[in-house]
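Example 3.2
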Amino acid sequence: MKEFPTPAMKRSWFTLTMLVSKDFKKKYRRSVLGVVWSVLNPLLMMIVLSVVFSAFLKFGNIPNFPLYLILGNTIFALMSDSTRDGMESILESTSLIKKVRIEKLIFPLEKVIFHLVNFCFSLIAVALVMLWFRVIPTPNALFLPLLLLYVSIFSAGLSMLLSALAVFFRDVLHLWGVVLTAWTYATPLFYPVEILPEILQKLEVFNPMYHYVVYFRDIFLYSTTPSLLENLVCFGMAAITFLVGFLVFRKFEKKFILYV
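Structure, written as tokens:
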């Protein structure tokens, strides 16, 4: 009978955990506050955006606007940070790939896991804002692991796709930053979706991050239970993206060594 988990799986898991640990040490090296910045960053960003959009753009009429902001920004940041780092993961690991026979899929997936762990620290900031506005979590908050699964699968798919493309086309490294900026403004992170023209509101249905942001706000801000249809849509978008990314990555990974 074949051993499970296999030695190869054990090696991959060990490598994965070591890379996550390495990234944490690298991120907070010589930082006095260390991991506390994972809590402070979303809080500070929320304060700045709250002042800007409340005072100048008059979006402060949204109930609990700072909480509305931090929920949207933190879940979007999970995707954007994961894909930005995941895209560069193969190129950053050139020396290791050339020296050791290793499962290359580990590198983009590790970036997603690292930012998922970092996101969990950001939830402390979310909890503090909820406490400030006296928004009490309901049992709907138990849907959070499901949402994180959707966003992680979606981000992993994009990371695999982008990391493969970046090996052959370095322009992807620059273009993705532009795409993320446009995506940020195309997703109602700091404005209500109702202000968009009707045609753009309809197009939001095809924006995966719109669904994930709404899902996050529904379970924490509005105490709404996500419908079965919404869960199927969120999972479907994540699964399709993951499948495309995985197939592209597997198709070209043997050629990475020639281009890195």
